[in-house]
Amino acid sequence: MQVRFSFFNSSQFSWFALLAAVTFAYPAINCIAQELRIETDIFAEDEEEPLSRTVTLFDSNTVFDFTENPPAVAVFRPPSPSHEGQFILLDLQSEKRTEVSTQRITGLIDKLVRWARDQKDPLLKFCADPQFEESFDASTGMLSLTSEMWNYHVATVPADDPTTLKRYREFTDWYTRLNTMMHSTPPPGPRLELNKALEKHGVVPVEIRRTVDSSGSTLRAVHLFTWRLSREDRARLEEVRRHLATFEKVDNAKFIAQRFESELVRGQSE
Q1: Distance separating alpha carbons of residues 1 and 227, to the nearest angstrom
Q2: How far apart are CA 29 and CA 39, in angstroms?
Q3: Residues 145, 151, 157, 159, CA torsion sign
Q4: CA of residue 88 relative to chain centroid, distance
Q5: Which of 38, 191, 250, 253 could form an SS bridge with 56, CB 3.0 to 4.6 Å?
Q6: Average pLDDT over residues 171-179
Q7: Under the phi-then-psi rule, with left for phi > 0, alpha for psi from -120 to 50, and beta for the rest, what region is 184?
Q8: Which of these, 266, 130, 246, 120, lies nearest to 187 by C-alpha position?
């Protein structure tokens, strides 16, 4: 069984938006919490060629997110009552890894939000405390979050399993915060508000279109979703586990600096 998904990511705003067009089959529901596979293509406007492509694998309580360009993996272990959550980021070119706790992410995002509230830039102030007009048509599944600064228009379908929807939201929320920290973007408030609205209405997205009025840019994304991991997927996970044991661990600042340098060199050669 396959499902369509979408999310947004751009050079200006590294938002991650989890989307799905879901046709749930009851025999598959029991394995949803264990295994999921999402192929993601990001598009600018109505372009046919994607800007980026990722594969996200949900295995038991761990999520593995693979990006193609540059080649990298983000491993997410969610927080629990007894342990804080954690991202482990792997650079496949330099064979380096770094670890970021969800506690550290929360602290940095809180500081960013407080700073943005005091700025004159209207986009920063909005992202710190986004206020949307929300509308949802249950008969069509259309969800809209609109404002003068930022707009989401989302085609959705009902999620048969609220537990699965909650797991999606948890990963999406934390990944959005991580991207904000890693790429120095405005606060993640708009994306988090959309996640909250999706869960409130018990729906998952078929397609999301996000428009930021200050730039006039519109992004859309499409995911191909399946409930089980393939043999090739499992081989990729085993390879990542070997990388976790062998890649050199570096601090966050060194990891980010090295990633920026490699992206700059790649951009100059293209």
Answers
A1: 7
A2: 20
A3: negative
A4: 15
A5: 38
A6: 94
A7: left
A8: 130
Report which of residues 205 and 202 the model is more confident about.
202
Place of tokens 């600042």: 253
* The token pair that represents 2 in the structure block: 């396959």
Q: In this predicted model, what pLDDT tens digit does every residue of 92-132 receive, in sequence order?
A: 999 999 999 999 999 999 999 999 999 999 999 999 999 99
Domain ranges of the chain: 2-269
194: tokens are: 């959309």
Q: What is the 3-state secondary structure (H, E, C) of the chain?
A: CEEEECCCCCCCCCCCCCCCECCCCHHHHHHHCCEEEEEEEEEECCCCCCCEEEEEEEECCEEEEEECCCCEEEEEECCCCCCCCEEEEEECCCCEEEEEEHHHHHHHHHHHHHHHHCCCCHHHHHHHCCCCEEEEECCCCEEEEECCCEEEEEEEEECCCHHHHHHHHHHHHHHHHHHHHHHCCCCCHHHHHHHHHHHHHCEEEEEEEEEECCCCEEEEEEEEEECCCCHHHHHHHHHHHHHHHHCEECCHHHHHHHHHHHHHHHHHHC
